[in-house]
Amino acid sequence: MHNKVQEFNEYRSKMNDKILDSDNKIIKRIFNLDTNAFKEGHLPVKTKELLGLVASAVLRCDDCVQYHLEASYKLGVTKDEMMETMSIANLIGGTIMIPHLRRAVEYWEALEQQDI
């Protein structure tokens, strides 16, 4: 499972570099807005990442879920906190979220099995 996390991060990094190399001003601004939205502010970064996790899960974006799971894990979110967060996402998103919850739990286990 370690490769799952490494493969995701390598692919994401490679493709982000290609996208940003296109030098598209709008895309660069969107990336910058995303980066700045998750910085410390009135809400702690940990809270923002968990909010991002819920939103990403409800929108059923597995790449985004993986990104926010990893960021949350690095911030010290526990498995119980992650599961509680995902329970809210499942409540809001409905049963169609269950396959995404499976993949989220699988990715969390991959995070737990490696040193980040």
What does the model show?
The chain is mainly α. The protein has one domain: Up-down Bundle (AhpD-like), CATH 1.20.1290. 78% of the residues lie in helices and 0% in strands. It has helices at 2-21, 25-37, 45-58, 62-74, 79-93, 98-112. The longest helix has 20 residues, at 2-21. It is globular, with a radius of gyration of 15 Å. It starts with a helix and ends with a helix. The mean pLDDT is 95.
Biggest sheet overview: none
Overall shape? globular
Specify the CATH architecture.
Up-down Bundle
Strand content: under 5%
**SSE series:** HHHHHH
* End-to-end Cα distance: 13 Å
Number of strands: 0
How many domains, in number, for the residues? 1
CATH domain fold name: AhpD-like
CATH class: Mainly Alpha
Indicate the low-confidence ranges by residue numbers.
none
Mean pLDDT across all residues, rounded? 95
How many H/I helical runs? 6
Helix residue percentage: over 70%
The CATH homologous superfamily is called AhpD-like
- SSE-based structural type: mainly alpha
What's the helix and strand layout?
Layout: H1 2-21, H2 25-37, H3 45-58, H4 62-74, H5 79-93, H6 98-112
Helix pairs in contact: 3-4, 3-5, 4-6, 5-6
